[in-house]
Amino acid sequence: MRRRSTGRGRFRTPLQGFTSTPRPLDGVPPFVWHGSIRSPEIAEQAAYYGDGFFANHIYWPKDHFQRLIGIYRERYAHYGHGTPEQAIVGLGGQVYLHRNSQEAVREFRPYFDNSSVYGHGPSLEEMTEQTPLTVGSPQEVIDRTLTFREHFGDYQRQLFFMDGAGLPLKTVLEQLDILGEEVVPVLRKEFSARRAAGVPDAPVHPALGVTGASA
After folding, report:
1. H helix or E strand, kind and range, residue 126
2. What angle do CA 104, 107, 108 make, to 5 degrees?
């Protein structure tokens, strides 16, 4: 069902006949995530409402995202939504996969070097050392991703940036196949096994009847 909306607000231009799709499933509002790559104000906003905070964990060192997530967890508890450990956290990450790690580096380097974001700056090796960017085999991606819990605590959502740096569609689809077949199933199992007691499951629609952290 589609509904057309018209209205005015304080923070954007008026909506005239705007159609919002899809509508909330079964009339249940979706879980809300507030995403940020650099703004502590977004962490504060997410904490105030008791919503999820998604730290877009790319481009910057882990210390930066530890600060943002730390602010969110502390303020989440301050506003009475639960303990800091019960706050709902999501992380980003960027990977380039090949079943052979040397081939992954060889294939990705030209895209990296000519990227509008990465190119003409720190080297690929420097960026993979200093930021969450991971270029390598499925096992290397699994191992690196599992270290995120050590830096940020237990968290509920892991998303991956797969089509950056100008990768062609065919390559992106190949990347998704490897991710889905060899990486995600292992991460789901490991996230579930390692989650501390009292940490909430990932938010899902009530009708799904399933729980668990997901990658």
Report:
1. helix 124-130
2. 80
Interatomic CA distance for residues 42 and 29, integer angstroms: 21
Domains by residue range for the chain, with CATH? 30-208 (3.20.20.30)
* Diameter over CA atoms, the chain: 55
Residue type, 60: W
19 SS3 class? strand
Q: What is the pLDDT of residue 204?
A: 82
Give the least confident one: 116-120, 177-181, 209-213. Answer: 209-213
Give the alpha-carbon dihedral of 59, 35, 150, 88, to 10 degrees: -170
Q: Which whole number is the average pLDDT over 76-99?
A: 96
Give percent of the chain with pLDDT exceeding 70.
92
Query: Can you tell me whether residue 38 is helix, strand or coil?
Result: coil
* pTM for this prediction: 0.83
Least confident of 18-22, 143-147, 156-160: 18-22
Long-range contacts of 176-181, Cβ-Cβ distance < 8 Å, separation of 24 or more = 178/97, 178/98, 178/99, 178/138, 179/95, 179/97, 179/141
